[in-house]
Structure formats: C-alpha cells, structure tokens
Design goal:
- This protein is mainly α and about 80 residues long.
- The chain is built from 4 helices and no strands.
Length: about 80
Amino acid sequence: MKLNYAACNKEAERGTMRQPYEENTATLKDLMTVAPIHPEVYASITRGRVKARRLVEDFRDAAKQRREDIHWVLK
C-alpha cells in the first residue's frame, strides 16, 4: 500500500486531512494479496520503533528532571 503524497498535500490545502487511523488501515483485498513482510524486516522496523520510543521517553524524563530542578532552586 503506497501513500499518495500529492493527494495528501491537496487534502491539507483544502483542510480535509484524513485521520491517522485511516492511513494505518488496509483493505481486506490488500491484506490477502500483498506478500507478508520478511521477519528480519519486521524485526528491524520494530527495533527502530522501540529506539524512537525510548528516545522520546528519555527526553521526557530529562525535561521533567529539569522542571523539578528549577522548582527546587526557586523554593
């Protein structure tokens, strides 16, 4: 399933963007006819998602720590 970026840009200009869940769904025909993803590719994608999620969590924790440090100094 390919995203049509030109159509997305036109939708953005008109203010009729699709919801995120609509981009992550596939039709039954697509699911039944597209070859399954190779396990190594799936593992690589999953590792990338986990790495990105951990990076976001680390930034969030660092920001929380900075807020607490500032609060402690201002007391």
